Amino acid sequence: MGQRKGEGMHDATTSDIEMLNRYKGTLVKACAIYDRNFLNKRVTYITKSKTVSLVCKRNNFMHLCGIDYYNENPSRFYYDCKRDKLNFKEHHVRIKNDGNTPRKLQVIGCLGDLLIKGKVRLVGNTITYFSNYNYVLRSHSAIIDLGCSWGKNNYYPKSVLNLKFEQFDSGEEIIDILIENLV
Questions:
Q1: 96, β-bridge pairs
Q2: Where would I find the Phage-Barnase-EndoU-ColicinE5/D-RelE like nuclease domain in this sequence (predicted)?
């Protein structure tokens, strides 16, 4: 049985809020990368044997960061990041119980690495301790993974993973990356 929204998260403590505030600049930069390179785009990764297209929406960004912002409001989180107006307050922010929020925030600024042809690899049907993914896109430098799952006729970004804490096969080299605007 899947988890309901908000399960696996807790209200951010004072020390959690301090940690989140240290990552504000990183979140703003990551949002700019996401906005410029992923938002409302179909990003297609091609290997010798597979083609995987990823559709990225505004609502995916908050989940990638491992944060629940103002009652699960991904639009507000996205726009607050974009305008550099993030406001982390107790009882308005939740983070993951499993410790993955800081791990995600350590690498979220590397999203752009997943668009460098020859520097990205595709790993199929991946299951980790915390979740499962149809595909994982990983940087060649083994720093960041983007877990992708199938839903609503597209793959979508499900999770950012810090490879210091995860082990995956090396996967197949991406030989081409195509980016198509959807709007």
A1: 9
A2: 27-164
> 168: pLDDT confidence band, cut at 50, 70 and 90?
low
Confidence label for 132 from pLDDT (cuts 50, 70 and 90): low
- Number of domains within the chain: 1
Residue range 150-167, pLDDT digits in tens: 887 888 888 887 666 666
pLDDT confidence of residue 5: 52
**27 within domain boundaries:** yes
C-alpha dist (Å) from residue 161 to 22, 84, 89, 118, 132: 19, 24, 25, 20, 12
User: Quick one: three-class SS letters along the chain?
Assistant: CCCCCCCCEEECCHHHHHHHHHCHHHHHHHHHHHHHHCECEEEEEECCCCEEEEEECHHHHHHHHCEEECCCCHHHHHHHHHCCCCCCCCCCEEEECCCHHHHHHHHHHHHHHHHCCCCEEEEEEEECCCCEEEEEEEECCCCEEEEEEEECCEEEEEEEEECCCCCCCCCEECCEEEEEECC
Task: Give the pTM.
Answer: 0.84
Does residue 2 belong to any structural domain of this protein?
Answer: no
Supply the range of the domain harboring residue 89. 9-181
Residue with tokens 């960041």: 144
Closest to 29 in 3D by CA, of 113, 109, 83:
109
